[in-house]
Amino acid sequence: MTKQLFLAGVFVLASACLLAQRDLAPGSILQNNGDTLTGFLRDNGKMKNATDCVFYSSRDAGEQVFHPGDIRGYSFDDGFHYTSKAIETPDGPATYFLEFLVDGTANLYFLRTDRFDAYLIETPEGKMVMLPKSGSHARILKGLFSDCMDIQDKLNNPLFSHAYMTKVVSQYHACTSDPDDLCRVYTHEKDMFKGFVGIRGGMRYTTFFFVNHPRYHNDVYTSWSSPVYGLYGGFSLPRLNKNLRFQLALDKIDALHHNTTYGEVNETTYTQDYEFSYQALQFSPGAEYSFGSGRFSPYLGFGLRLFRLLDFESSNTVTIEYNGETTVENYEMYEFTIPETNVGTYLNVGARLHLSDLHGLQLDVVLGNDPGLIENNTRTRDLMVMFGYRCSF
After folding, report:
1. Are 294 and 243 in contact (CB under 8 A)?
2. What is the DSSP letter of 11?
3. Angle 246-247-253 (CA atoms, 0-180°, nearest 5)?
């Protein structure tokens, strides 16, 4: 049953990623001869949109891929506009589709590549000035907009955001242009809902200790490691908060632990071998908050963990040697009787590497606390290190 559930999740993941690849929206392309063709465009996110324009004359037609220079630009009916520009980048001269944000006295563009994010300001003289994400740009902006004293104070601590940059460039236009000169701001309303699904796997390192136990007091009893793998998915509401996400993870745990201890009391030696194994499902509803919006983004998460036992086996064998005689006794390991269900909490720290706006890799370090996971006054704590792949849609 678990295998079928996991395969079904993988199928859902693949389907979601496939649908994300063909996210068509009404739009048009502007050819180099000035003609406009209307149809549908595929939105592959800011990074991919900077290098490829995927156009369909109709929803059922085959795709046509245009690169910067093949056409003047393209635009989505809902507000995204891209224009082809040859620019100087930290990696040398290149031609990209720049996202057009403000068309006024000074033009404002945005570019995201796999190496950097940057705003570009085109001056009235046609000079292109790049403002990469790293570094302070107060001096550069004050120099570009030196003929408008009304906004100088606002440039002391510039922000690297669409809202701030769009506002500043628009105010510069109003300050330096005739009131009848139009300043066009290309806006795009944020999505109401964005979803994501992923697959992950790693190791779980578990320690359990006794709490107010009449025999073992507060001792740490043992620890073990076990493989864990699973699926996860969730959603965000960008119009409310683009950095906050809600998710649910389903992980399969396969634990096997064996330990041998030796002792000697009054010329009697004994060897104790204990072993246990279990399989379980772990449901983890929670939330995460990410920091930054570039290619690399760390995040923090927290939530609940719902533990469901699938199978459990244990054994405890004691071998006693005295006066040349050997006695083997088997005991039931009552300390390791795991309940069928349990509720705990978790806190995780992670980082995500965006391969594109739709695909990414991530690393999670999850700290878990499960009171009463193992019966008889015990508590478990664990550390999970998980690597995963994630697809947004």
Report:
1. no
2. H
3. 155
Contacts of 296 (CB under 8 A, 6+ apart): 351, 352, 353, 354
Helix (H, G, I), strand (E, B) or coil at 18: helix
29 token code pair? 């392309």
Report the C-alpha gap between 351 and 361 in whole angstroms: 9
Question: Which tokens is 258 given?
Answer: 């064996």
End-to-end CA gap in the chain:
28
Amino acid letter for position 157: N
Distance CA 96, CA 112 (A): 10
| pLDDT per residue rounded down to tens, the chain (393 residues) | 555 555 565 556 666 565 555 567 899 999 999 999 999 998 888 888 999 999 999 888 888 999 999 999 999 987 789 999 999 988 889 999 999 999 999 999 999 988 888 999 999 888 999 998 877 788 899 999 999 998 998 898 888 888 899 999 999 999 998 888 889 998 776 677 888 999 999 999 887 665 555 555 455 566 778 899 999 999 998 878 888 999 999 999 998 877 777 777 777 787 877 777 888 899 999 999 998 766 788 999 999 999 888 888 877 787 878 777 877 777 655 455 567 788 889 999 999 988 876 788 999 999 988 765 555 556 678 899 999 998 887
320-333: string of b/e by CB count within 10 Å (b at 16+)? eeeeeeeeeeeeee
Note the helical H segments in 196-270. Answer: none
